[in-house]
Amino acid sequence: MSAKRIVVKIGSSSLTNEQGRLSVEKMSGLVNQVANLQTRQEYEVILVSSGAVAAGLGKLGWPRPNITMPEKQAAAAVGQGLLIELYQKLFAEHGIVIAQLLLTRSDIEDRKRFIHIRNTAETLMRHGILPIVNENDTVTVEQIRFGDNDTLGSLVALVTEADLLVLLTDIDGLYTANPKTDPDATRIQDVWEITPELEEAAGGNGTALGTGGMKTKLTAARMAVDSGIDVVVASSSEPNVLSRIMEGESLGTRFYSKQRLSSKKSWIAYGTRTEGRLVIDNGAVRALIERASSLLLPGIVEVEGDFHEGSIVQVVSQDGRLIGKGAVSFSDRDLRLLIERRQLGEKLHNYHEVIHRDAMVIQSREGIFT
Ligand SMILES: Nc1ncnc2c1ncn2[C@@H]1O[C@H](COP(=O)(O)OP(=O)(O)O)[C@@H](O)[C@H]1O
Ligand SMILES: N[C@@H](CCC(=O)OP(=O)(O)O)C(=O)O
């Protein structure tokens, strides 16, 4: 049997103490657990670790609320070094070599860079080196931020085609409401479907140190389960939480995946941005949904945006519903030209396929991509 690949994301609050400094005690507990899995032949672990901003602020003694973005980025630049230094020291005690991967959203959106990240991660893992990923906070501005490491964790799981994503946090799972404000909230053990009610329950903010609370965990879970990756949200302070999850114990909240999209389709659905829109007629909508056809030239009613061959575009119906996304075979200019020439009566059989079925994902009414 091939090794199970697990992405473990650890939130800031699980790595720091009350004063906001890195907690050696908490970190060494988690490192011991990861090392335990990593040294067993049947698991490959990739760590997605937050904590740079918190560690930097703690070290510098800067106050937490009301800091500017450059101050936060400066704190991350200080903190990331401290974080990786401590990880390197703690993993070295187990004979494990670590590697640091700092990523931005645009690194994942670009197909070539996506593949470089995947190849690097594969090479590291093949050599038994543990990749530790964080957002490259110092270079990211709002437009290219993942914004939270739950999303980053999910995208890393997608890039590396992991079997499981574990989101370790300061609470033992998703509750029916934020238990810090609602004493009647109860834990949800299994999630088969991410419903609007569930999204409502996860609406509250997280801790002072964390970024997104449960909301971002749910968004991350949706991406992963659609890509065929199960997700567990669990408490980092639960003893031996990782090996117990791997042994099948029901801890925290487990989100069950339904299908496995190919890596390319997951990337189209969740990994990248769209650069334009194709509005298609009802016949084409039916062909895509009911017959799983490729998108052909005659179904296109309108072309919007600036894009080139290979760009990812949205495919929408005439009433504005998102039908899917895919890699288009022509630039917007060429597509407009072809539509015009076709309308003038030219036969364009060779140019028929605008988006090939294998390079397209279709969205169901429940929001699931297939
Ligand atoms: N429905 C909910 N169930 C559980 N926790 C919730 C819920 N809504 C909000 N939260 C908050 O989310 C917090 C965890 O998110 P966050 O602080 O971002 O953690 P991390 O730093 O680990 O990513 C919990 O401590 C809790 O206060
Ligand atoms: N890249 C940031 C992580 C931000 C973040 O998502 O934090 P968290 O909600 O604690 O996982 C850092 O290292 O501080």
From TrEMBL:
<dbReference type="InterPro" id="IPR041739">
    <property type="entry name" value="G5K_ProB"/>
</dbReference>
<keyword id="KW-0641">Proline biosynthesis</keyword>
<dbReference type="InterPro" id="IPR002478">
    <property type="entry name" value="PUA"/>
</dbReference>
<dbReference type="Pfam" id="PF01472">
    <property type="entry name" value="PUA"/>
</dbReference>
<dbReference type="InterPro" id="IPR036393">
    <property type="entry name" value="AceGlu_kinase-like_sf"/>
</dbReference>
<keyword id="KW-0028">Amino-acid biosynthesis</keyword>
<comment type="similarity">
    <text>Belongs to the glutamate 5-kinase family.</text>
</comment>
<keyword id="KW-0547">Nucleotide-binding</keyword>
<comment type="function">
    <text>Catalyzes the transfer of a phosphate group to glutamate to form L-glutamate 5-phosphate.</text>
</comment>
<keyword id="KW-0808">Transferase</keyword>
<feature type="domain" description="PUA">
    <location>
        <begin position="276"/>
        <end position="352"/>
    </location>
</feature>
<dbReference type="InterPro" id="IPR005715">
    <property type="entry name" value="Glu_5kinase/COase_Synthase"/>
</dbReference>
<feature type="binding site">
    <location>
        <position position="137"/>
    </location>
    <ligand>
        <name>substrate</name>
    </ligand>
</feature>
<dbReference type="InterPro" id="IPR036974">
    <property type="entry name" value="PUA_sf"/>
</dbReference>
<feature type="binding site">
    <location>
        <position position="149"/>
    </location>
    <ligand>
        <name>substrate</name>
    </ligand>
</feature>
<feature type="binding site">
    <location>
        <begin position="169"/>
        <end position="170"/>
    </location>
    <ligand>
        <name>ATP</name>
    </ligand>
</feature>
<keyword id="KW-0067">ATP-binding</keyword>
<dbReference type="InterPro" id="IPR001057">
    <property type="entry name" value="Glu/AcGlu_kinase"/>
</dbReference>
<feature type="binding site">
    <location>
        <position position="50"/>
    </location>
    <ligand>
        <name>substrate</name>
    </ligand>
</feature>
<dbReference type="InterPro" id="IPR011529">
    <property type="entry name" value="Glu_5kinase"/>
</dbReference>
<dbReference type="InterPro" id="IPR001048">
    <property type="entry name" value="Asp/Glu/Uridylate_kinase"/>
</dbReference>
<dbReference type="Pfam" id="PF00696">
    <property type="entry name" value="AA_kinase"/>
</dbReference>
<comment type="pathway">
    <text>Amino-acid biosynthesis; L-proline biosynthesis; L-glutamate 5-semialdehyde from L-glutamate: step 1/2.</text>
</comment>
<keyword id="KW-0963">Cytoplasm</keyword>
<protein>
    <recommendedName>
        <fullName>Glutamate 5-kinase</fullName>
        <ecNumber>2.7.2.11</ecNumber>
    </recommendedName>
</protein>
<feature type="binding site">
    <location>
        <position position="9"/>
    </location>
    <ligand>
        <name>ATP</name>
    </ligand>
</feature>
<dbReference type="GO" id="GO:0004349">
    <property type="term" value="F:glutamate 5-kinase activity"/>
</dbReference>
<keyword id="KW-0418">Kinase</keyword>
<dbReference type="InterPro" id="IPR019797">
    <property type="entry name" value="Glutamate_5-kinase_CS"/>
</dbReference>
<dbReference type="InterPro" id="IPR015947">
    <property type="entry name" value="PUA-like_sf"/>
</dbReference>
<feature type="binding site">
    <location>
        <begin position="211"/>
        <end position="217"/>
    </location>
    <ligand>
        <name>ATP</name>
    </ligand>
</feature>
